[in-house]
Amino acid sequence: MGLLFGLAALGVNSASLAVAFGAVGIGLGFGLQNIFSNFVSGLILLFERPIQVGNDSKINGIWGVVKTINVRSTLLQTYDNAPLIMPNSEFIGQTVTNWSYKDPRVRRTVNIGVAYGTEPELIRKEILAMAEQHPKVLAVPAPVVHFADFGDSALMFRLYYHTTLDFGMISETEIRLQIDERFHELGIVIPFPQRDVHFHVAE
């Protein structure tokens, strides 16, 4: 107030100054709002600990490992080895998938198609036996194989199994390679999409 009176004594319009200071105050308020929101979100992350350093997490379609949690932001190291600094409010306001939260087990799915005419029960037993014997597949919960569907070009089967987070993707690759090798030994065909085209000749 003293500043306004002093400027008014110098002939400066106090009403214009009040409007200007009000606009500046509103701008600062909006700017500090994000800072305050991230600060509060940081405190929530530090005390409630929904994510922790070392967790494999996914947010906004980005998957990575939590490296540091600070008061304002969190550092996420993506699997492309890119450091990603995210505002803490993102972790509070968005849905976060924390793959490391309490239980390191993850369920994986492998889809398999075989040619029509193949005995379905044989396929189911072969896939299940390979999954049960695989060293990276957990015994509990036990793997299961479903006859999923009659596809356009194949009988579709779906293998569900559990493994640990570290072996999620590599186990899928190893199982697919094993299935391909075993099916080749048994003469089981994994078909590719086919289309029959019929031509009608106008008389």
Automatic annotation (TrEMBL):
Every Mechanosensitive ion channel MscS C-terminal domain range: 109-190
Record's keyword annotation contains rRNA processing: no
Residue ranges of domain Mechanosensitive ion channel MscS in the record: 34-100
Biological process annotations from GO: transmembrane transport
Membrane topology summary: Multi-pass membrane protein
CC terms in the record's Gene Ontology section: plasma membrane
Domain of life: Bacteria
Similarity field: Belongs to the MscS (TC 1.A.23) family.
Protein name in the entry: Potassium transporter KefA
Organism of derivation: SAR324 cluster bacterium
